[in-house]
Design brief:
This protein is of the alpha/beta class. Helix content is about 40%, strand content about 20%. It has a single domain, classed as Rossmann fold, CATH 3.40.50.1820. Helix 3 crosses helix 10 and helix 4 crosses helix 5. The radius of gyration is 21 Å and the shape is globular.
Length: about 270
């Protein structure tokens, strides 16, 4: 007589198979979950501020697009890397604020697959896109690549930190930064071993110590997507000189408030 498998063992087997299948799906669709590009013509492509279209090519041949916001008397050049959703037509206002706050020439660029940029986004690809964007900005403004100020928001902070730590930068401005992508994913999916499974890392916590220039960090204390605690961990690992400004009551996607704008103005004015 064949012993019948207990019901609880059968149920456990079903749960295990379901869980394994879920992990497989999440690994397969990792990049689709991480990157949420808005393709042209979504967004406001005729904003009130003036800009020039910038086109350039990544090292692997991917054609990219951005908005160059020139200044009558630019004293600085700033490269702005935006978040994981939208495109330049949705993030250009951040570049316009930086232009006025810092009397700077600013390039806001789209990663591959965003806006008018070709291709599909990957963690490796967006880093290559940032390097191509910085090279274009340096050539356009006559500023050395290592003298470009790097600014990033949300996902873009990981891009900016990687670029600054590996290649150097005049300064870093990080808005709503994180320690690593697996750390952020673990907060949203606590039942998933994200640190084992994720291919996309953007491990800013490991890299930030290799940047020796000045850094300004802005982070809202009501950020539900990337909690302030992650930003504080990253800030603690960074070298001096550095400053952290906590934006009281601000969420992840809220406009930068007056305290944040004043901090960026003061920070940019202190740079030679």
């Amino acid at each position: 007589m064949v012993a019948r498998t207990p019901w609880w063992a059968r149920a456990a087997g079903v749960l295990l198979l379901s869980y394994t299948g879920l992990l497989g799906l999440m690994m397969w669709f990792e990049e689709q979950m991480l990157f949420v590009p808005a393709r042209y013509p979504r967004g406001d492509w005729k904003p009130k501020f003036q800009f020039e279209d910038a086109t350039f090519t990544a090292a692997d041949g991917t054609k990219l697009h951005g908005w160059f916001l020139n200044h009558e008397q630019p004293g600085k050049a700033i490269l702005f890397a935006h978040g994981n959703a939208g495109n330049v037509a949705m993030w250009g206002h951040d570049g316009a604020e930086l232009r006025e706050l810092g009397d700077a020439a600013v390039l806001v660029f789209d990663y591959r697959g965003y806006g008018r940029s070709e291709g599909s986004p990957t963690a490796k690809g967006v880093l290559a896109d940032a390097r191509a964007a910085r090279a274009w900005l340096a050539k356009r403004t006559g500023v050395a690549e290592q003298d470009v100020i790097l600014a990033g928001r949300s996902l873009g902070t990981g891009v900016a930190v990687d670029l600054a730590a590996r290649d150097g930068a005049k300064a870093l401005i990080l808005i709503s930064p994180f320690t690593s992508l697996p750390d952020v994913a673990a907060l949203r999916y606590p039942f998933v071993p994200t640190h084992w499974l994720m291919r996309s890392r953007l491990d800013s916590l490991s890299l930030i110590k290799d940047f020796a220039g000045p850094m300004l960090m802005l982070h809202g204390d009501n950020d539900q997507l990337i909690p302030l605690a992650l930003g504080q961990r990253l800030f603690a690992a960074a070298q001096e000189p550095k400053r952290l400004v906590v934006l009281r009551g601000s969420g992840h996607n809220d406009p930068i408030n007056g305290d944040g704008l004043a901090a960026m103005r003061d920070f940019l004015k202190t740079l030679p």
